Amino acid sequence: MTRHLLRDDDLTSAEQAEILELAAVLKKDRWKLKPLAGPQTVAVIFDKSSTRTRVSFAVGIADLGGSPLIISTANSQLGGKETPSDTARVLERQVAAIVWRTYAQAGLEEMARGTTVPVVNALSDDFHPCQLLADLLTITEHKGALKGLTLTFYGDGTSNMGHSYVLACVTAGMHVRVASPLAYAPRADVVADAEAIAATTGGSVTLYTDPDEAAAGADVIVTDTWVSMGKEEEKAARLRDLGPYKVTPHTMSLAASDAIFIHCLPADRGYEVDAEVIDGPQSVVWDEAENRLHAQKALLVWLLRQQ
Ligand code: CP
Ligand code: NVA
């Protein structure tokens, strides 16, 4: 049966661990596997801007022996002119997989329902599961086993990153904390889904409004932009509301002494994080950015094996 990655909990704990192990193998031996030899093509579609996702998928598909076809929605018939399911039916006759960065999660779900090739969410308004695979690989490299670690996410818990941390971390058996104002807490249904997973993995999810309390003893401190793509008109309100949740040297001083800092990037220094933190010794953001490549290659290999 065709498998897709539309949200983080599309993977079981065992599947997530298998992909992370494969990512580590591919990081050590970059050209070990060529499941796309032919070359087969993978369509990588962007409705929103991107640097890391665009580059890492293009390079990764080439590493796997394939050919990336990068499509901007602005120059295609998607985006109001043709439905996701009709687009999928056209693409599946010619490509091995479809990777899509878009707005509505519902579009991705429609795309996946309409096709026999794997569909990968390369960021939607609701989730960014590819980023989380890279983040979990990075955390493993720096902290060892994921199970039992505590990660605190600061800022917009309603965002794709907020939701993905909640789901992916409990899948890995981690304790995830979200520090945000009440109005920016993760969606209740996502928290409920995470709690159900946590009950089987030994993880947990806890929501905080006090930023200091949320940092206490954490192994990983993470934040993301306060103004996600598509939220630009709310910028002034967001800067005001999320100000107290900036990650500062004080935040890091409350976390475990060997805590690491991660950020999916792009970052707004001085807003969600101080330059001293993101450019400081505890930051591993460049490893994290590189790991997009290795994690997504492992994901594509794994998805193609399920076909
Ligand atoms: N982190 C991330 O997805 O970056 P891009 O928006 O540059 O792809
Ligand atoms: N939350 C951010 C992530 C960017 C990679 C956004 O959606 O803009």
What does this structure look like?
- With 307 residues, the protein is α/β, with parallel strands linked by helices.
- It is built from twelve helices and nine strands.
- It has helices spanning 13-28, 52-63, 84-91, 105-113, 129-143, 160-171, 188-201, 211-215, 235-242, 249-254, 275-278, 285-305; strands at 41-46, 67-72, 97-101, 119-121, 150-154, 175-179, 204-208, 220-223, 260-263.
- The strands form two sheets. It has a five-stranded parallel sheet with strand order 7-6-5-8-9. The protein has a four-stranded parallel sheet with strand order 2-1-3-4, sandwiched between helices.
- Helix 2 (52-63) packs across helix 12 and helix 3 packs across helix 4 (105-113).
- The longest helix has 21 residues, at 285-305.
- It starts with 12 loop residues before the first helix and ends with a helix.
- The model has no long low-confidence stretch (mean pLDDT 98).
- The structure holds phosphoric acid mono(formamide)ester and norvaline.
